[in-house]
Write a structure and sequence with these properties.
Order of helices and strands: HHHHHHHHHHHHHHH
Number of helices: 15
Shape: rod-shaped
Length: 392
Amino acid sequence: MAVNPLLGAEQAVLGAVLLDPGQLSHLDWLAPDHFYRPVHQALFAALRQLQSDGHPALTAQKSVPLSWVTDAVDKAGLHVRGLTASYAHTLVASCPRPAHAPVYGRMVLEGAIHRSVTKHAIRLHQAARADALQGKVEGALHQADVLTGVLADLAQRWGSEPLPVAPAAPEAITPVAVPPVRSDQSSEDERFLLAVLVDRPGAMDEVVGWLRPGDFADPAHGQLYRCLGALHHRGEPIDRLTVLWEAQRRGLLADGTLSADQVTAICDGGGPGSAEWLGEQVMRSSVTRTAATSARAVRTLAENDTLAPGRLINHALHALGPLDDVRARWQAANAMPAAPPTAPVPAPDRQATTRTRAALARSTPRAPRVASERLGSAVAPATVRSPVRGHS
């Protein structure tokens, strides 16, 4: 039966530590929750605890005492069920080379990065959909901050700089529509806003600084707002006829984006209303819609197993860029102060040290230690697999 590479990596790194406790000092960047299987999480946490307690195995010169394995199994068994000493022997047999523990740990961390980004992208999408239904934005913006902080932390653990980088060939992401419960209301808000902008002189001044054509859920409404923006920018009068003429000049009537009847109906549908308030409703819908689209883009990236963690993190930060832009304009529309950075920034020396350790773990082989000398009475020699040349 073929072994899942990630499962094999988790087993190998645990087997390496059981064979050679000193390997834990090369894995200080690896955490128990980076393991996928709960039994592996519990066992790695137990090994970490034994290390903190100064277990005698850490100072053993020639052989690893059997208590290193039995104590780890006993401690882990307090948190998970079904863990036995025989499984510890299975882990030992699954480790090709104990000296390669940092490389196996890197594989475990890589899997954890993909899972973590996927999980938080799903939470962002769920928050965005919930906010859209309730006419709010706070939940989506909070989850976006959480995801950004997670990406920064993962970049530090991986040993790379968290920088937004566009994919060479971005995958097409289907735009996320406004939930049905709110779609009619959003479309009505957009039409009413456009009518107010045409009907009331000076109304464009209330929204032009922060509202963009892309904030409209209906592309036709966004193009009509672009026409209004062009007339306003040139200082030309805005009315039903000038808007229709601008739409024609931009080819919107010829390509079917808008019809003359549509433009006329929208322009004549005005009444008393606040352009600023209506613009904020459009912006609110834009925030949640953009958050949902960004979340789907990040999730698509995270589910691509061929994408290296550094690239995944940087591409995910790039996918969140449109949401950052919409958020900034939303805050401007509501006169809110800019949100402070959510990800803790470590001191430069600690950050550099962490990155150096992580990078070395990925690229520099450790001096191999003779397994037969370290094994001692912990595991019978028959359970140890002979080294595989392909892993050397």
